[in-house]
Structures are given as C-alpha cells and as structure tokens.
Specification:
single chain, about 400 residues, alpha+beta, five-stranded mixed beta sheet, 16 helices, globular, disordered C terminus
Amino acid sequence: ADYVIAEETAGTASAARQLIADLAPAAAANAEAERKLASELAGEDLDGADWPYWQAKRREQELGIDEAEIRKYFPLEQVLTDGVFYAANLLYGITVQKREDLNGYRDDVDVWEVKEEDGTGIGLLLTDYNARSSKRGGAWMSSFVDQSHLAGTKPVVVNVMSITSNLLTIDEVTTLFHEFGHALHGLLSDVRYPSNSGTNVPRDWVEFPSQINENYAFAPEIARNYARHVDTGEVISDEQLAALKASRQFGQGFLTAEYLAASAIDLAWHSITEDTPSDIQTFEEEALREVGLDIDGLEPRYRSTWFNHIFAGGYSAGYYSYLWAEALDADGYQLVEQEGINRDTGAKFRETILSKGSSRDYAEAYRAFRGRDKDTRPLLERRGLAGSDVSA
C-alpha cells in the first residue's frame, strides 16, 4: 500500500486510511438508520441481500421519481448538445461542432471538432454511444492522440457508452457528463510533454475533473436548457429537479458504508507485513471492526474471494481512489456554487486543473484552484451524512 500510494495524490497509505476513518462513523450511523426504515417497509428485519431492493422502494415512495416518465426529458442528442456541450461553452467558451466530412471507426460513431471562442481548433472528439454485441459494457474515455507542444499534436479523444435507448436514464445522463469531463481533461491539456498530457495522472486524481463535471448535469441553469419532454417540449419542473437533487443523498449511508468497507479490506490486504492470514473471514471482520464498519446486515461491496479490482484489476491498494476524487470534487464544486457557473470559474478550473495534466504537483494545483487544501465536510454534506465531526 505504501509503495502504490506514494505515486498517487493521497501520497501515503495513512492518508487513504484517514479518509476512510473520517467518513466511516457518519456512514455507519446513517446506514443503521436506513436499514431500520427499509425493514419497517419490508415488515421484516433485512439482511444485506434484500436491503438495496427495499431501499429502492423507499426512494420511489418518498421522492416520487417515476424513472420511466423522467427519462422522457432526456433524449440523447438533446442532452449532449444542449446540456453537455452547453455547459462547456458557459464555463470555458468552447464550442463543439459535428464534422460531417469526417468518418469515425464505425458508421454510428460521430466526429466533433472542439474550438476556442475565436474559432481556433483545439482537437477532435469521437462519440461512440450505442450498445452492440461486440462492445464491452460500461463507459469510458480514451485518448488516440495526446496534446503535446513538443510533438506539435492536438488531442483526439473518444467517449464510449453502451446506450440501448434514445431516452436516457438518470444514471446515463450523469455518465454522459462524467465521460465528457474526462474528455475535457484531454482536450484542454496545455503541456509540453505527451507523458504529462490530459488524463495521464494518478488514479485518485483522474476522476476529479470527470466527477466535478457530473454536477452540471442537474444544475438548474443547465438542466432547464436541455431537459425538455420528448413529446410536449415541456421544460423539466423545479419540483422534479428538487427530487433529482434529493435522490443524490438518498440511501447514501448504505452506499458509502459498503464502499468504505471494501476499501478498508483492500488496504488491509495490501498492508500485510509478515504472516498471511489463515482465515479470510476473520481477517475481513477484523479489518472492518478496526474502522467501525462491522454492521449487522451490511455486506462490503466486494468480499476478498471475488474482489477482482484489487487482485487483477489494477486497483491494488487503490480502491479508495473513487472517494478520494469525490472528496476533491465535492469540495471543489462548493467553490463553483459560491462563484457561479460562469466563464471566470471555468477559466480558473481550466488553468489550474484541466490544462496541467501531470505537469504540476497535484496538491499545489488543487490549492491554486480552491485557495486551500481539500476539506471532507462538503462530501459528507453531499452524501447526506453531515452531523458527525470530521477533520479537514
């Protein structure tokens, strides 16, 4: 763990453990309360397998979000051009125009040129969104050409998803913004060496720009520009936007606790110094007890025997990184909320974060943007877990 995390933004394994320790008490307390409410709805004491199902039932009843109806406000092309690209124009002054004269690697892959406000070309974006049998699941961004002043190259990047319907789900809208956040990291890079360009950064930093870009998906000033009913043209209501915002905090005790539990197990395995544990279950129980996440009925997101991420997936001692990046995102977006979604805020983020790649110390880059080191309290507030004392 010390060896791996020395090259990550966290810097030390103890810093990663401290993040878990900061969040675990509030996550555990909220998870217990959520299980009690879900058990009341189910009419029985729930275990880990049934908990998510009844949690979803509570969300539907309490927030009144009809997934089938709400997605009619999210046609793909509308979300992309009037939402994702619109937000980027507000923040960075860039425009994204389809290049009908250029062909992607498939007929259903579109090519877009990204330009500065004065018309100067920045790079190319390919979008490959449709599901097909030959495509693996999930969503990702890749770079075909990295920006580099040394090589004289402009970036060419691709966003990939596996969408089966033209009407997007809430999660798919969020993912569209997320992956374009990665694309912006590659497109707005401004460095000399290709090895420092764009997303060539540590795992616990690379998700920061993408996760902060997720916030614009349901920011009222953005959503009202793209979220129009496919049949009536009606703009999404303030009540619906409020429900979508509330849904981000719903069930976060469970979701945070199961994630932290898996992260704690990951760090425990990769912090063994002498004897290998002979009993896996006992080892896991001790690791969870140490951080206060040995909660009845709550399963870690992954158990050791099927934790592919940390034994064969490149996340050895790094599973914590998703939440580390979200802590940066939550704290950073608090500044955006204070200053507004505007060109000045965008210019600051572009100059200090997006353009630098790995050419600058990450802590220095974050301080240049935020004006101070990261604080975990905004993350607790976002996840509805505020109330417990945490350290900055």
